[in-house]
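User: Hey, quick favor. My workstation is busy. Could you predict this chain's structure for me?
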Amino acid sequence: MKNERIIRGAIASLLALGVVGTSTHAMAAAGDNEKCAGIAKAGKNDCGTSKSSCAATVKTDRDAEAWVLVPKGTCEKIAGGHLQMSEFAKPGGKSGVLSPAAKAAGAA
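Assistant: No problem, here it is.
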């Protein structure tokens, strides 16, 4: 009976540590990191690109669109790294996604 309580306590502690670790990582990702593109290894990207649908799916090393989160100020120090702005943000608030009409006009 005493051993069972010790085991249950140990399992509860491990679960609590996992929850704290996850929330700490999420807070760090939100504020102290930046998206750095052009440095991810194949299969190690943090989000999808125009060539891959989701995280960990980029096929080649150092894909210019594939990004990973790094501590702020680090990306500019990494050879080949560049800050990845919002996936569709362009200067002047314009979207990087073409409307169907614009696509049709460009194809003509």
